[in-house]
Amino acid sequence: MDSVCQARSKTATGLPLVFLLIGVFFVGAALLGHAQQPAGAGQGARTPALPRPSQSRPPVKTAPGPPATGRPRSIAATAQSNDPQQLLVAGQAAADANRFDEAIRLYNRAIVLSANKPQTAATAHFKIGNAYMVQRKFENAAIGFQRAIDLNPGYAEAYNNLGESLGELKQYQRAIEFFNKAVVIDPTLVKAKYNQAVSYDRLRNFRYSEFVFRNLIKSNPQYSLAYDGLAVTLSKAGRPKEAIALHEKAIALAPQDASYYFNLGISYLMLGNTAKASEQQEKLKAIDSLVADRLASAIVKRQMN
Predict the structure, then answer these.
(1) Which CATH number belongs to the domain containing residue 254 in this structure?
(2) 64 and 46 Cβ atoms separated by less than 8 Å
(3) Is 7 domain-assigned?
(4) 90: which DSSP letter?
């Protein structure tokens, strides 16, 4: 969904991003923005979305890989394999090393060799979608996820990730339809529920976003993203005072997540409390200096207005 902001480590597709969602609003004359993220890999079930996609934001990583000058022999040797499973493994290894073109070639070969194995081909299309999500080629990603669904109509993760890719394209209403389908297929897919709530937020349907977030917290009380997401939604709905305790709960559950401190700082600025916002900025210096600088900039803008 709106892709930018606040810094989130991972995205729904297990990708570092997956839908970094940003809510923008005015505090006086200063433009400030919270950042809801697509549910990320490592957050809740899955491993989310949606992250933020998908949330998913499924397990394409952008972890540093070996030097781009060469491929591990095992991957090079597997590239000509006639075993689709080996090709899927090799493709994932290439994707993990950020060699996405190579990964996609391997996945496509697996698809060709899986003409009579629709579920295997569906997995390959799903992984192609993830590779495109990491590269922010959301239209291509959506095609990959849709093909995975066509081959495997019960593929909950693919519905979630398709929703995430559509969210990145700002097609929020369509995205919600696919998140809903993901939840129907797999009621335990936490990231899809989170992505539903964020999508309603993006549509400025704060009441229903709040409803979904509160139900998510009730069923998953240790899911930090849900607390932060609900806090952001409440702040954007003009209720920043109510958001503070929820931001703090998210931080208590995941004290190393820089985005949570940033969002808490923004909510304090909405309340006109620059001193408390500055406290969050100081804490951020030890966690993520770039996010700390972003919050410092927001504080300065608030003080100037």
Answers:
(1) 1.25.40.10
(2) no
(3) no
(4) H
